[in-house]
Structures are given as C-alpha cells and as structure tokens.
Design a protein that fits this description.
It is a single chain. The chain has 435 residues and is of the alpha+beta class. The chain has three domains: 191 residues, no CATH class; 105 residues, Immunoglobulins (Immunoglobulin-like, Sandwich), CATH 2.60.40.10; 101 residues, Immunoglobulin-like (Sandwich). Helix content is 16%, strand content 36%. The protein has a six-stranded mixed β-sheet with strand order 1-2-3-8-7-4, sandwiched between helices. Strands 18, 19, 21, 22 and 25 form a five-stranded antiparallel β-sheet that branches.
Length: 435
C-alpha cells in the first residue's frame, strides 16, 4: 500500500508525464514549455511579471472514495483500543489542468496536448510510476527530506485511473473566485483511487487447528450467556468494594470478567468467585490508598464510568467470551463535607471533597449540591481530591443532598429499606448545610 506521500507522488507522476509530452513537441512552439504544480494565484503572479508558455497542474480537492470506504472490516477490537488491522484510506484526487500562452492560440494548443495525454493514459501503469519516481533522476522529486519514490504508489493493490470530470459554469466561477486568480483555459479530471495505509502494529489471531462440530438436541444454547448484572442493595450502580452478582446460564467455568470502556481506552480484568451454572460474583477493585500519598501515576482502582461487561468462560482447553452487558461503576465521596458552607459576599463558594476511585485526566466530574451543579477544576494527574467552584451557591434552611457525578454516573444517593412488606427507595447520602 501507499503511505502519506502518495498524494504528492501522484502529482509528481502526472507532472513528469506532461513534461515528456512537451519535450517532444517543443519545436512546434519555439519556446520551452514549463510544467508546474502550483496554486493558480502563484502562477498568475509569475506570468504577470514574465509571460511564458506554461501548463499548470493543480490539485484542488481530495474526497473519500465511496467504493472503498465501506468494504473494510472493523479495524479495532471490542475494547475500542486494540488495533486489529490497518484499513487503507481511499481517496479520489481532483485536478485542474490550466494552460498559459503568450501569443494567440498557444494556450489552446498547450491544453490540447495535455488533454490528449489524459485521454491516452486512462491508467497509470506501475512501470511508468516507478520510472517517473526513479530516485536517480536529476534532481529526484522530493518533499522535505523524503523522496517520493518511498511513497509505494506503484505497489498499491488498486491501479490509478484517470477520468475526465465535468464542472458546471457556477462551479468553475466559484472555484476561480476562491483561488483569487483570473480564469484561463482549464480541463478538470480525477485520479482514483489512492490508497494510503498506516504502518502500525496490529493483532491477528492464530489459525484454527481443529473445528469441533456436534449436533444439539436441546432447545437451550450450551454457550455461556449473561442475563443481568446486579450490584448489592438493589442499586443501579456499584461503588468501589461492592460485591456484584452476575446471572445467566452455563457460567460454571467463569474465570474473570472484562470491563471495557472504549471512550476512555480502558479494559480491566477482574477475577470472579463462586461460579455456578447460573451465576458468579466479582468485587469492584478498591485498593486502600496510602496515608497522604502522592498522586499515583497508574492507580489500580476501577475508574468511575459506564462499561461493557463480558465474562471469560473456560470450556476444556478453550476460553469462550460471553455476550456483553452494561455495567456502571459509581464514584463515592469518602469523607463528610465540611458543614455548614458559608459563601462569600457574592454568594460564591469553593467546595473540596475526597473521593474514590481516583479521577483520571480527561474524565468529566461535577458536584451536585441539591439541584445545583459545578464542574471540577481541571486536573493533570490522577487525583482523589477534587475542588468545585459554585457561582453562586444558593442558601437553604434545610440540609442539601450531595452527589458526585463522574462520566455521567452519580454516587449512590438512594437506599432500599423495608416498609409495608416491600422494599421502598429513600434518599440516603451525604448532606451539607449552606448558610
């Protein structure tokens, strides 16, 4: 495949082909014909200062190729971060071929030879590309310190095809107005398709050695399946240290769960306990912080947020992955807030809390006091001490409930209590008084 130099290499090949054409017919014009690949306003400035015979090749637009962009398989694994493959970036290049003459009809004649080349070269042969980008040319085509023969243009799987294009009068007028140059005889055409592929490491599984195929008479599937994720206390979320129960079927071989958050690039494995046919349990990581520690560069707790939970099931010598279910890891406020809070004369107040798990850089955190919300001040390293500025903070005669929200997940604020022979939700969480 080609690399990022492929676009420049395509323009260089076309320019070299045009040069060959006008070297063969230079006696018909009596002057040297210059072939360039510059913006039309730059060419016009030079032509105004010193008129000459010139053909200019200008790349005015690059668009995705519709046929190639939808045929590739996913490039990332389910965790959103593991690269499986490097799908090519497929591009169509749109050019303007413009001729500049000195005397009558010269521009038309130059344009005629250039258009004939485009017509006679519907496909850029690999041998021609290699010849035009030969580094032994004097001087070799180069961009910066990289010569264009390193673009790999001749080795891409798709050959380059040249197709005439049609621009309406309004498109041509708009284009030349945007270029801030006077219109000259112009022929539009398209080169398709340039395939740019990143050179990055990927993951490729080993081939299957044996396939085990058997008939199944039962209606139920023998494969592991998850049905529900249940944090303790009928809570919708689990906080650090909670024992979470996962129910389903064929889970007796469960060894660990994988919690993946593609947005944050997190994939954390947690061992399970008490696996049975219908359920297993796991504990949300809650490592105890050292007394007055510096911020750890890589905390071992599970960041608050929403995850996809998948179980890893051992079946003989194989390891199977179950279906995925959503799982919300909630933050928790680990120390009571200083109460009461007394705002300043303008009603502003700064509130500092300690929390678990650690907040990572890039996570979105907000503190809610009653119905008011304030974002956390920016952090540059993992921290379990957050500050929030309320501007202003409204006072109230009764204590206000306090919640910490991280990446859309609130700290637990509701407790299920038994009343009238049924569980009833009631508010139960940290509160603070605002003077």
């Amino acid at each position: 495949m080609s690399n990022a130099l492929a676009i420049a290499a395509t323009s260089a090949v076309l320019q070299s082909l045009l040069n060959e054409v006008f070297l063969q017919v230079k006696n018909q014009f009596g002057l040297v014909v210059t072939v360039s690949s510059k913006a039309p306003d730059i060419v016009q400035t030079a032509q105004t200062a010193s008129p000459s015979l010139q053909v200019n090749l200008f790349l005015h637009q690059v668009t995705p190729n519709a046929a190639w962009r939808n045929v590739q398989l996913p490039s990332l694994a389910a965790d959103g971060s593991t690269r499986l493959r490097n799908p090519p970036l497929a591009l169509d290049l749109h050019y303007l071929l413009t001729a500049y003459g000195v005397n009558d009809f010269e521009a038309e004649a130059l344009l005629g030879y250039a258009i004939q080349l485009v017509y006679e070269t519907p496909v850029l042969a690999r041998a021609d590309i290699k010849a035009m980008l030969n580094p032994t040319l004097n001087p070799p085509p180069a961009v910066g310190t990289a010569t264009l023969n390193q673009a790999g243009l001749a080795d891409q799987i798709e050959m380059l095809k040249i197709t005439p294009a049609t621009l309406g009068r309004e498109e041509v007028a708009w284009l030349w107005t945007a270029l801030k140059a006077d219109y000259r005889p112009t022929f539009p055409f398209q080169v398709s398709v340039v395939l740019i592929q990143a050179e990055q490491t990927g993951v490729s599984p080993l081939p299957v050695l044996r396939r085990h195929i058997r008939a199944q008479t039962e209606v139920t599937s023998p494969l592991p399946a998850l049905v529900a994720v249940s944090p303790p206390g009928n809570q919708p979320t689990a906080k650090p240290g909670d024992l979470v129960t996962v129910t389903g079927a064929n889970l007796q071989g469960a060894t660990e769960v994988v919690l993946a958050n593609a947005r944050r690039g997190i994939s954390q494995r947690i061992p399970v306990s008490n696996p049975t046919h219908g359920s297993f349990q796991f504990t949300v990581p809650n490592p105890a912080p050292l007394p007055n520690p510096p911020p750890p560069p890589n905390p071992q707790d599970l960041p608050a947020g929403v995850y996809l939970l998948t179980a890893q099931i051992k079946a003989g010598t194989d390891v199977l992955a179950s279906n995925s279910l959503p799982f919300a890891a909630a933050p928790t406020i680990t120390a009571p807030l200083a109460s009461p809070i007394t705002p300043d004369a303008q009603g502003n107040a700064t509130v500092t809390i300690t929390c678990a798990p650690y907040l990572r850089p890039g996570q979105e955190a907000a503190l809610l006091i009653g119905g008011q919300s304030a974002p956390a001040t920016t952090i540059t390293e993992p921290s379990n001490s957050l500050s929030f500025v309320f501007n202003p903070l409204q006072s109230a005669s009764t204590p206000k409930l306090v919640r910490l929200r991280v990446d859309g997940v609130d700290s637990q604020l509701i407790e299920m209590v038994m009343g009238m022979n049924k569980l009833t939700p009631v508010f139960s969480g940290p509160t603070v008084t605002v003077n």
